[in-house]
Amino acid sequence: MKRHGLLIVDDEKEILRSLTLTFADDYAVFTASSGAEALEILEKQEIALVIADQRMPVMTGAELLERVFQINSNIIRIILTGYTDTASLIQAINKGHIYQYITKPWERQDLRITVKRAVESYELALENKRLLRELQAANERLKDENIFLRSEVRKEWQCVDIIGQSPVMQKVFSLVNRVLDNSATVLLTGETGTGKTLLACYIHHHGPRRDKLFIEQNCGTLPEMLLESELFGHKRGAFTGAIQDRKGLFEVADGGTLLLDEICEMSPVLQVKLLQVLQEGRFRRVGENEFRQTDVRIIAATNKDLQTEVQNGRFRADLFYRVNVFPIHIPPLRERVSDIRLLAEYCLNKYRRKLNNQVTGFSEDALRSLCDYDYPGNVRELENLIERALILSAGPQIEAGEWLPMLTMHPGSMTRLERLERAEIERLLECHQGNLTRIARELGISRTTLWRRLNDYRIQPDKDPGVSK
Ligand SMILES: Nc1ncnc2c1ncn2[C@@H]1O[C@H](COP(=O)(O)OP(=O)(O)OP(=O)(O)O)[C@@H](O)[C@H]1O
Ligand SMILES: [Mg+2]
Question: Is 125 in the pocket of ligand 1 (CB under 6 A)?
Answer without folding.
Answer: no
